[in-house]
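Homework help board

Subject: predicted structure for assignment chain

Our instructor gave us this sequence and asked us to write out the predicted structure in C-alpha coordinate form, then describe one feature. I got the C-alpha coordinates but I'm not sure how to describe them. Can anyone check?
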Amino acid sequence: MPAQPPRLKDVPRNLKGYFLCLLKKGEKWNETEGSTELMPQHLAFLRRQMESRRFLVAGPVLGEGDDLVGISVIEAASAQEALEVANEDPGVKAGRLRMEIRPVYLPSLDGVRVEF
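My C-alpha coordinate output:
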Protein backbone atom coordinates (compact mmCIF):
# COMPACT_ATOMS: atom_id res chain seq x y z
CA MET A 1 0.00 0.00 0.00
CA PRO A 2 1.54 3.34 -1.03
CA ALA A 3 2.18 5.91 1.66
CA GLN A 4 -0.40 8.69 1.92
CA PRO A 5 0.95 12.20 1.43
CA PRO A 6 0.94 14.24 4.62
CA ARG A 7 -2.24 16.20 5.26
CA LEU A 8 -1.94 19.92 4.65
CA LYS A 9 -2.56 21.65 7.98
CA ASP A 10 -4.36 24.61 6.39
CA VAL A 11 -6.95 22.52 4.51
CA PRO A 12 -10.15 21.78 6.48
CA ARG A 13 -10.66 18.11 7.34
CA ASN A 14 -14.38 18.20 6.73
CA LEU A 15 -14.62 19.24 3.06
CA LYS A 16 -17.89 18.27 1.46
CA GLY A 17 -19.27 18.55 -2.06
CA TYR A 18 -22.08 21.02 -2.73
CA PHE A 19 -23.45 22.94 -5.68
CA LEU A 20 -23.19 26.70 -5.93
CA CYS A 21 -26.24 28.11 -7.65
CA LEU A 22 -25.68 31.41 -9.41
CA LEU A 23 -28.95 33.27 -9.79
CA LYS A 24 -28.82 35.48 -12.85
CA LYS A 25 -31.14 37.85 -14.67
CA GLY A 26 -33.42 36.00 -17.06
CA GLU A 27 -34.75 37.03 -20.45
CA LYS A 28 -37.80 38.67 -18.87
CA TRP A 29 -35.90 40.38 -16.01
CA ASN A 30 -37.28 43.85 -16.83
CA GLU A 31 -40.93 42.86 -17.27
CA THR A 32 -43.11 44.34 -14.56
CA GLU A 33 -46.39 42.46 -14.99
CA GLY A 34 -46.94 40.19 -12.00
CA SER A 35 -43.99 41.63 -10.05
CA THR A 36 -45.93 42.16 -6.83
CA GLU A 37 -46.83 38.47 -6.62
CA LEU A 38 -43.52 37.09 -7.84
CA MET A 39 -41.18 38.25 -5.05
CA PRO A 40 -43.24 36.68 -2.22
CA GLN A 41 -43.47 33.46 -4.26
CA HIS A 42 -39.69 33.47 -4.81
CA LEU A 43 -39.03 34.08 -1.09
CA ALA A 44 -41.48 31.33 -0.08
CA PHE A 45 -39.71 28.94 -2.46
CA LEU A 46 -36.34 29.77 -0.89
CA ARG A 47 -37.75 29.29 2.59
CA ARG A 48 -39.18 25.86 1.71
CA GLN A 49 -35.88 24.77 0.19
CA MET A 50 -33.89 25.94 3.22
CA GLU A 51 -36.30 24.37 5.70
CA SER A 52 -35.98 21.07 3.82
CA ARG A 53 -32.15 21.49 3.81
CA ARG A 54 -31.94 21.36 -0.02
CA PHE A 55 -30.65 24.96 -0.01
CA LEU A 56 -28.28 25.56 2.89
CA VAL A 57 -27.81 29.30 2.44
CA ALA A 58 -29.19 31.80 -0.06
CA GLY A 59 -29.13 35.52 -0.57
CA PRO A 60 -28.90 38.43 -2.96
CA VAL A 61 -25.72 39.71 -4.59
CA LEU A 62 -25.61 43.49 -4.46
CA GLY A 63 -24.18 45.79 -7.10
CA GLU A 64 -24.90 47.25 -10.49
CA GLY A 65 -24.04 46.26 -14.03
CA ASP A 66 -23.86 42.50 -13.61
CA ASP A 67 -26.26 39.69 -14.44
CA LEU A 68 -25.58 38.02 -11.08
CA VAL A 69 -28.36 38.83 -8.61
CA GLY A 70 -28.16 36.04 -6.02
CA ILE A 71 -26.49 32.84 -4.87
CA SER A 72 -27.40 29.71 -2.98
CA VAL A 73 -25.60 26.59 -1.85
CA ILE A 74 -27.48 23.41 -2.69
CA GLU A 75 -27.04 19.93 -1.29
CA ALA A 76 -27.87 17.42 -4.03
CA ALA A 77 -26.66 14.11 -5.44
CA SER A 78 -25.73 15.62 -8.80
CA ALA A 79 -25.52 18.88 -10.72
CA GLN A 80 -28.58 17.82 -12.71
CA GLU A 81 -30.59 17.29 -9.52
CA ALA A 82 -29.45 20.67 -8.16
CA LEU A 83 -30.45 22.39 -11.41
CA GLU A 84 -33.85 20.68 -11.43
CA VAL A 85 -34.56 21.88 -7.89
CA ALA A 86 -33.32 25.41 -8.63
CA ASN A 87 -35.41 25.62 -11.79
CA GLU A 88 -38.58 25.12 -9.71
CA ASP A 89 -38.14 28.70 -8.49
CA PRO A 90 -41.17 30.79 -9.55
CA GLY A 91 -38.80 33.47 -10.85
CA VAL A 92 -37.21 30.96 -13.22
CA LYS A 93 -40.59 29.67 -14.37
CA ALA A 94 -41.62 33.28 -15.11
CA GLY A 95 -38.44 33.87 -17.13
CA ARG A 96 -37.20 36.62 -14.80
CA LEU A 97 -34.34 34.52 -13.45
CA ARG A 98 -32.03 31.81 -14.72
CA MET A 99 -29.79 29.47 -12.77
CA GLU A 100 -26.25 28.26 -13.28
CA ILE A 101 -24.92 25.39 -11.18
CA ARG A 102 -21.25 24.92 -10.26
CA PRO A 103 -19.82 22.09 -8.15
CA VAL A 104 -17.84 23.30 -5.12
CA TYR A 105 -16.05 21.85 -2.11
CA LEU A 106 -16.66 23.69 1.14
CA PRO A 107 -16.17 22.92 4.79
CA SER A 108 -19.24 20.96 5.90
CA LEU A 109 -22.33 23.12 6.31
CA ASP A 110 -24.16 20.43 8.28
CA GLY A 111 -24.33 22.70 11.35
CA VAL A 112 -25.55 25.79 9.49
CA ARG A 113 -29.19 26.67 10.16
CA VAL A 114 -31.03 29.62 8.66
CA GLU A 115 -33.70 31.15 10.91
CA PHE A 116 -36.91 32.73 9.65
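Reply (TA_rk): Your C-alpha coordinates look well-formed. For the description, you could write something like this. Residues 15-107 form a domain with the Alpha-Beta Plaits fold (CATH 3.30.70.1060). That's the kind of observation they're looking for.
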